[in-house]
Amino acid sequence: MSAETGTPADAPGATSPLTVTVWSDPGCPWATLALETLRRRAGERVTIEHRAFPLELFNSRPTPRGIVDEEIAAVSEFLPGLGWRRWHGADSAYPVSTLPAMEAVRAVASSQGPAAADELDAALRDAFYRRSECITITPVILETARRCPTVDAESLAEELRDGTHRKAVHEDWETARSGTVRGSPHLFTPDGRSVHNPGVRWEPRGASGRPPVLRGYDETWVERFLVPAPRPEPTTT
């Protein structure tokens, strides 16, 4: 259905959803903030297409828990309604890798479509940021998938056993390394619009060791991003 008119998307005059390609890592709080805002404010006006920006491959190490905890704290202090929490599970259960989660999302996108993949992506981020569940391991990924009404978890289990979509994550990494993608998150539209880490005004950790602080967050970046730039008037001679 069209979000604005309530008419079928294929009806005359209906507007097709805009595809927004989002490059991100589920372990990146800023990417998760951007995606949650985009889903809430744009709804069915957009189709989210996920691409992996695997920080652990870029940095050749797991993303340090201390950095993630500080960024989660900065976001949740400014936006407590999100319900995010620092990791409160066992230290031994902290996710050492987010590649399996990204592989699962790419697998679902390939076989079940972008809507199911986005539902799984949102659920995996919820599992990490609110539930403190280890999204590195297959049993947790599949348990999370079973909480998603549109995801066929058994089909996903077969694909994860085959490992056929790990290659897609590495291909995304190779593409991102070309320089077009600036980081996690970076959003693109088919007509060339793009925005990196939108709406955020923050101060990263300083040399004095002061933790990062989120100074402002403008959620209206979504509406500005979704409106295409006006085409230039044709010139006449």
UniProtKB/TrEMBL annotation:
Region annotated Disordered, chain positions: 1-20, 179-214
GO molecular function, one term: oxidoreductase activity
Gene3D superfamilies to which the protein is assigned, alphabetical: Glutaredoxin (3.40.30.10)
InterPro entries, sorted: DSBA-like_thioredoxin_dom, Thioredoxin-like_sf
Name of the protein described by the UniProt record: DSBA-like thioredoxin domain-containing protein
Domain DSBA-like thioredoxin: 19-193
A family per Pfam: DSBA
